[in-house]
Amino acid sequence: MQxxxxxxxxxxxxFDPRTMPLALTRSILAVSELISIGFTPxxxxxxxxxxxxxxxxxxxxxxxxxxxxxxxGSGGLLVSxxxxxxxxxxxxxxxxxxxxxVPHWFVAWSLGQSMTMASGAEEAAxxxxxxxxxxxxxxxxxxxxxRPGEPLAPVWAGSSYAAWxxxxxxxxxxxxxxxxxxxxxxxWRSGQAMFTVLVDPFYGxxxxxxxxxxxxxxxxPAVRLLTWGVLVVELLIAVGALLPxxxxxxxxxxxxxxxxxxxxxxxxxxFGLVMIALVLLLLVGEPGGPAPVSTSDKLxxxxxxxxxxxxxxxxxxxxxx
Length: 321
Description:
Blueprint: H1 2-14, H2 20-39, H3 42-45, H4 66-70, H5 74-93, H6 97-114, H7 120-131, H8 133-136, H9 154-182, H10 186-190, H11 193-198, H12 207-210, H13 214-217, H14 220-240, H15 245-266, H16 269-280, H17 295-299, H18 315-320
Helix pairs in contact: 1-9, 2-5, 2-16, 5-6, 6-7, 7-16, 9-14, 14-15, 15-16
């Protein structure tokens, strides 16, 4: 037990998440949210429903969200979009991570809380932007792409290590629940769920892909293999999130394969990008791991260099999301 305790304390003291996976995660998350805000009209973000004449959920703590504070009028909606876009652009280009991490979380929280029907993408982005705050509050870099010039302070190393394990557990829970919950549906148990998804006229395959894949869609063994393969991949990602780095790399590759396929087949680009970015966090902060390198870093004096440690859809469609 003492050996385990010493190992955990050593890992926490040496942990530094300021590596390329963290930079890519922040930029991908911001780009995904920019896609949602930039290409989704206000009337789709905030749709009329009984009890919500403006389409916004502005009650309780939600009244503090950016969209609710600015108001539902055309002027308020424009201001909200401009402010949110400005924050997300700064995050996407990697400017001042220490000062943009909390505003980034606030934009993600505001969008998820205010919009009429938040999707899995908003929920996952909210979790990710919140859990990486401890990674960034001690980060004094101007750009998150550059190599850190000094070690992370012990208090931030320890809090970052705890947040990293919370992220890993969150990923394991998300994918384990996604896989096991599908087994409660007859379509997934019978192996036919992916057929329902892929031929759906709204969420299914684009017409340009459906005809070439017709032999696959009409093959019962292929459909079963594809359906049950989704369940297996989700379980592997869940387990891999808690295992050593080599296995976590495999889990990340499986995530890219799974959500890349979903983006192509179902057009859920924002959701896929968010989930890929979230799972990418499995690769931050390993002892001896690579750090972001910029041209200015290569020209910096050696004494300043520091190498850190390493609309409604069928049930099956909603479930695969």
